Amino acid sequence: MSQTRNEAPARAGANVRKVFIKTYGCQMNVYDSQRMGDALAGDGYEPTDAIEDADLVLLNTCHIREKAAEKIYSELGRIREMKIEREAQGRSLTVGVTGCVAQAEGPEIVERAPVVDLVVGPQAYHRLGGALARVAAGERVVETDLTTQDKFEKLPRQDGRQIAARGVTAFLTVQEGCDKFCTFCVVPYTRGAEVSRPFAAVMEEARRLAAAGVRELTLLGQNVNAWSGEGGGGRRLGLGGLLRELAEIPGIARLRYTTSHPRDMDDDLIAAHRDLAALMPYLHLPVQSGSDAILKAMNRRHKAGDYLRLLDRIREARPDIALSGDFIVGFPGESDADFEATMELVRQVRFAAAYSFKYSPRPGTPGAAMGGHVEEAVKTERLERLQALIREHQLAFQESFVGREQEVLVEKRGRHPGQMIGRSPFLLPVVVPQSAGAIGEIVTVRIEASLPNSLMAEGADHENRVAQPLRKIA
Ligand code: 5AD
Ligand code: SF4
């Protein structure tokens, strides 16, 4: 099947068009990009990792912070040069913007970046094929309707081969949108109101993934723990109930979900952490700030104490659970004392991992119109202090596994011969020796060392040292 590039144009595949999709932002975009790729495969597009080979370039964008959104315009500048060069050679290039910038800035993008042929928002991916046909007919297309229907139902199902090529872990979007309206956040505007995918659709896709060899499922949603649906016999189910059903699917060994809101962690979901061995002991539960005044201004609708009490309940159900969070520093009105309250909360919780950002005012959100914006230099200094503290806890968390056994799901080959990479239940990458097990197996290894961003299992480093000379010869 192997074919050199020089041979390709003469063959039947010459009119196979190629699509390059670049994904920005969160895991929901990663999932959406895969589904768009599947849909385009039905329209005769093959995926490519090389932008130079592409006939269609899609930027699947993120609007969460200003930096993320601005990146798109600089990328479009580079693509414009590519398109000009192409056209000089008589070849065409179609350029599309999808994702949250598409939703938020739709017609503006077409105006600001003439290189763009189509703009398709996250709820309109099932119209991508139609939009491309209109582009081919000479139109510039903007599709940014926010429908409440399940867009995924209208996209073609993923086939087993495509799934298997993506590996033994998979994302599965079960919920989209958000009704919480935190005052800093654009998501309720870009992804629309909270919609849950129907129970039967989720189960069907999960079974399909499992049948193609997927061992670990990560359920995705902007507010995934707000998922609700109707199980067999009209039974109301929350995320806890859905996880119980998914855990029964043969082949599925691990379940995760992200991202959750503290207010939607209900009793049944907490109980699922106690009851389900397949539900991994790792929870991403953003709190954003440790100051009650800031939490109120953010419209988070809980206090720092509520969050800590919730963690106590979760830890009672699953004592070894590792926590991760998101933080924003420099929200309007954040004083030194407010920031210290965040540092204090982090010291109390000791997150296994956490993501922290400088507040970025987003157009149309209430936060952007608030008084008391914090100076950039203050934001920078607070972010550095917070990240140093988080990093300290993260490293201590990793170190705590040295000398202990861990169950690792083997996911892929490592960078060096003789090594494989997998993940621990706590989402830590673990380098294991190839002899430990094949891709898709869950193996028990003893952790020998903690590296900056991963753990090293016994024997992995040794095999690497032995294997190195071979690598040089090759
Ligand atoms: N500025 C900075 N960070 C933000 N986030 C969301 N909106 C903003 C903003 N305007 C962060 C939050 C959220 C994560 C996905 O991104 O911490 O949980
Ligand atoms: Fe944004 Fe808040 Fe909704 Fe999360 S819960 S998506 S931060 S509005």
TrEMBL record:
Positions of the TRAM domain: 399-461
Family matches, as InterPro entries: Elp3/MiaA/NifB-like_rSAM, Methylthiotransferase, Methylthiotransferase_CS, Methylthiotransferase_N, Methylthiotransferase_N_sf, MiaB_methiolase, rSAM, rSAM_horseshoe
Main location (coarse class): cytoplasm
Source organism per UniProt: Aureimonas populi
Gene3D superfamilies given in the database record: Methylthiotransferase, N-terminal domain, tm_1862 like domain
Names of required cofactors: [4Fe-4S] cluster
Residues where [4Fe-4S] cluster 2 binds: 178, 182, 185
HAMAP family: tRNA_metthiotr_MiaB (MF_01864)
Top-rank lineage group of the source organism: Bacteria
Keyword Metal-binding: yes
UniProt cross-references to SMART domains, sorted A to Z: Elp3 (SM00729)
Protein name per UniProt: tRNA-2-methylthio-N(6)-dimethylallyladenosine synthase
EC assignment: 2.8.4.3
Keyword Ribonucleoprotein among UniProt keywords: no
Family note: Belongs to the methylthiotransferase family. MiaB subfamily.
